Amino acid sequence: xxDQLAELYCSGTKGNIVSWLExxxxxxxxxxxxxxxxxxxxxxxGGVVIDQPIIxxxxxxxxxxxxxxxxxxxxxxxxxxxxxxxxxxxxxxLWLLGRLRHVGPLRVKQLEEQDxxxxxxxxxxxxxxxxxxxxxxxxxxxxxxxxxxxxxLDPGMAFGTGLHPTTQLCVGxxxxxxxxxxxxxxxxxxxxxxxxxxxxxxAQPVLALDTDPIAVDATRENIAINGVADQxxxxxxxxxxxxxxxxxxxxxxKDAALASGIETVPAGEVTFDLIVANIIARVLAALAExxxxxxxxxxxxxxxxxxxxxxxxxxxAFAAAGLEPRERHQEGDWVALVYTKPAN
Length: 344
Fold this sequence. Notes:
By secondary structure, the chain is α/β, with parallel strands linked by helices.
């Protein structure tokens, strides 16, 4: 592979022609979020294309996503002297993730500049991810219905397109619980979808935090596109003890992340009416006390990113922290839990 990339690099950088590598991999639906975040770490501008097979409707253009079929993820690398190093890191990480979920082999294809410029657009479509929330790629036209919350997004995001079940579960919970002027913390904001939905539902102020700077940059771009920059503040940071945990997918980068100045929201000193945390079970359980302390009395916690086999860990930690269960929602192997902080 190294020799092949070296040859491509020499041919791809002659004159003013710029070449790109398209890296693609097929994964099972439950692995989309993890693999997407991995690809975003290396891909150009953090962009990841998620291509999920569809089931055509009987009449007209309507369709549904096939939740049982393998999903293809793509990202793009400029064909330069760093391409082989990036490809190797992706391949090694995919092998590790493949020990937990079905992850196919990494495929590599060369594209010229003009091919790359439009390659990703063919894979994006309009998606309804809640009762009211609709994700619309910025280059597509959409005639909004009276009650729609339209999210304009570009694929140059760190991860998250509204496709993953945990994102959809969180959006549904936000639609049920956010009221005008609700203060919201989006913990582990990713591409900012949940913060944007909260803002469009009338929440303010909204704080969006992530320990990945690429995710925070993507969130800033997306809140600007959606006209909610006055309501949403973003920062590289976490809540309470979450700062010391680093980024869950890249634990080796923990010290570097801390040194770069991750912002800590002191649990208990700043409180919110609602917290939405779409992360993973291990982190949710570890932050249970901090999450409770950051809620006002009677405040709502929406938590997801929980694989069903680890649900008991979160339930036990939340109970030990004194949070009260309110709702449980499941889609496939993923669970969203809604809890409240006792009013007294």
